[in-house]
Specification:
Blueprint: H1 5-8, E1 11-14, H2 30-35, H3 37-43, E2 47-50, E3 54-55, E4 67-71, H4 78-90, E5 94-99, H5 109-114, E6 127-128, H6 131-134, E7 150-153, E8 158-161, H7 176-191, E9 196-199, H8 229-241, E10 249-253, H9 259-265, E11 272-274, E12 283-284, E13 286-290, H10 295-308, E14 313-315, H11 325-328, H12 335-348, E15 352-356, H13 377-388, H14 393-403, H15 441-445, H16 451-463, H17 466-470, E16 472-476, E17 482-489, E18 492-499, E19 505-506, H18 509-512, E20 516-521, E21 533-534, E22 539-544
Helix pairs in contact: 12-16, 13-14
The chain binds alpha-D-glucopyranose (GLC) and calcium ion.
Length: 545
């Protein structure tokens, strides 16, 4: 395998709105990001993935793009963006942008033009006549954000398709002009020095047919547009025309992806894909129903994906997910230990690790939002639906909390001063988590035992250790509460041992007879040689003899 920058780099996802506010308006921005590049460098980050910074009406905070060639003025200017790319590059950090092309904003000029039947952009979107004399949607599909996936526009005398929000009309990829336009966008940014793209909901862009979908309790119609043949054809074409011609990196957001499709997506289409089996392992049916953490299930998804793909995109958090410690670790007695155990896992798997801002500090979910504070539009829909089905107010709030995307979007906690040092404004766009006086970058920088310093050590260790970077992944069979695996490279063997639970776990003979030097552990004075037991959430990285 040829080694490219992304094979040895750690990716750090920035949600620009919540990272650092340079001008005191309560909203993070690009100059704010530039001011934190040294922080990211000292953490050991090699790539930044920026959630969308394009011009947008913010119906989905940038995942609704109104112009792919300009920067959201709340975040800065094109000159700021160029400066970010240059200054980062000088520090050895490359910038990856978010590519949102399943849909545009309804405020994009293509869409505005397409409302008129004779427009050259009419065929960029799915405009259809409705059923029953145009009074009902063309089919029964529902949107990921609730309600019908179709909206009627009187001026157009037709309905348009949107599998996400109303303000996110789907592009029609059957139209070759769409690919042409998107390729122009890709080249524009790559030529400006961007290192690549994280491709938003990229496995859903090809609608195979507009027939009615099977009835489901969640999103109806998906079987007509998830990972269709045309999806692969389009991505392969993009690869041929653009990606293969640049030294770049691409990663696809591919919910519901299976092994077979993942292998195709990562063969001359994209470089990597995100699988969601691991982070769905504590969910039942739909994301609002959280189940008890089942270590065995969690581990199985990871081992399966490590076995099935040569190179994974590993992550435990992003801007759409609740924070990970409450899900897979412990926020109380073993907060520190479990946060470090999860870090150890993320940084020692084979593949590119993706860290989400604040994860390196052990940031946690917001205690509980009330509907008047909700920023994510999905919350209002889910809350309303639950109340409609007679869930109590308390239960509804709790269920929304389980998947509330605002949880991971609260401002980054930089220090113990006002607004956690994120902004000088009176009000920030989302409130700061009240735990910021304890959990923040500055405090943790000054504490050698902090989660932040553990991440730094881990990332540095990973960088200098070819076995951790490129080594084969070999799982060791143990009971579900323990995770054990080898990373082997050119005769070097590194062994990773994790207790996924808060209980002491006794080790099987094949481990308790092992001899080795501990390279890093989340417990002081940890050794492996003749080790009989693992303490709560204990994690060890060992050089075996
Ligand atoms: C992806 C993004 C999410 C967005 C959705 C629609 O899932 O990660 O934030 O709402 O796509 O673009
Ligand atoms: Ca600002």
């Amino acid at each position: 395998m040829e080694h490219k920058h992304f094979h040895s780099a750690v990716v750090y996802q920035i949600y620009p709105r919540s990272f650092c506010d340079s001008n005191g308006d309560g909203i993070g921005d690009i100059p704010g990001i530039i001011s934190k590049l040294d922080y990211l460098k000292s953490l050991g980050v090699g790539i930044i993935w920026l959630s969308p910074v394009y011009k947008t009406p913010n119906a989905d905070f940038g995942y609704d793009v109104a112009d792919y060639y300009s920067i959201n003025p709340e975040y800065g200017t094109m000159a700021d963006m160029d400066r970010l790319v240059d200054e980062a590059k000088r520090k050895g950090i490359r910038i990856v942008m978010d590519l949102v092309v399943n849909h545009t904003s309804d405020e994009h000029e293509w869409f505005q033009s397409s409302i008129h039947p004779e427009s050259p952009y009419r065929g960029f979107y799915y405009w259809r006549k409705g059923r029953k004399g145009n009074t009902e949607p063309p089919n029964n599909w529902t949107s990921n954000f609730g309600g019908s996936a179709w909206t009627y526009v009187p001026e157009a005398d037709a309905w348009y398709l949107h599998v996400f929000g109303k303000k996110q009309p789907d592009l029609d990829w059957h139209n070759p002009k769409v690919l042409e336009e998107v390729e122009n966008i890709l080249r524009f940014w790559l030529d400006r020095g961007i290192y690549g793209f994280r491709c938003d909901v990229i496995n859903q862009i090809w609608k195979d047919s507009l027939k009615d979908g099977k009835k489901t309790i969640w999103v109806c119609g998906q079987e007509h547009y998830l990972m269709k043949e045309g999806n692969h054809t389009i991505l392969h074409q993009m690869y041929q025309d653009v990606f293969s011609k640049y030294d770049c990196m691409t990663v696809g957001e591919t919910s519901y992806v299976d092994f077979k499709n993942a292998r195709r997506f990562t063969n001359k289409e994209l470089d990597m894909v995100f699988q969601f089996d691991t982070i769905s392992s504590d969910r039942f049916l739909v994301p609002i129903f959280k189940t008890r953490f089942k270590p065995r299930k969690f581990k199985k998804t990871i081992f399966n994906w490590q076995r099935e793909l040569d190179w994974n995109a590993n992550f435990l958090e992003n801007h759409d997910q609740p924070r990970s410690i409450a899900r897979f670790g412990d926020t109380k007695k073993y907060y520190q230990e479990s946060a470090k155990e999860l870090a150890t896992l993320l940084l020692t798997l084979k593949g590119t690790p993706f860290l989400y801002q604040g994860e390196e500090l052990g940031m946690l979910d917001y205690p509980m939002f009330t509907p008047k504070d909700y920023q994510d539009p999905v919350n209002h829909y889910v809350y309303g639906l639950l109340r409609h089905y007679h869930f109590s107010e308390k239960r509804s709030l709790k269920l929304v909390h389980n998947e509330n995307r605002d949880n991971a979007r609260t401002p980054m906690q930089w220090n113990a001063t006002k607004n956690a040092g994120f902004s000088t404004s009176e009000k920030t766009w989302l409130p700061v988590n009240p735990n910021y006086e304890k959990i923040n970058a500055e405090t943790e920088e000054n504490d050698d035992t902090s989660i932040l310093n553990y991440y730094k050590k881990l990332i540095a260790l990973r960088k200098e250790n070819p076995a951790l970077l490129f080594g084969d992944f070999e799982p060791l069979k143990t009971k579900g509460s323990i995770m054990a695996y080898y990373r082997g490279y050119e005769g070097e063997m590194v062994f990773v041992l994790l207790n996924l639970t808060k209980k002491v776990q006794s080790l099987p003979r094949k481990i308790s007879t092992m001899i080795g030097d501990v390279l890093l552990s989340n417990y002081p004075h940890a050794g492996l040689t003749y080790k009989k037991r693992l303490r709560p959430y204990e994690a060890l990285i060992v050089k075996v003899k």
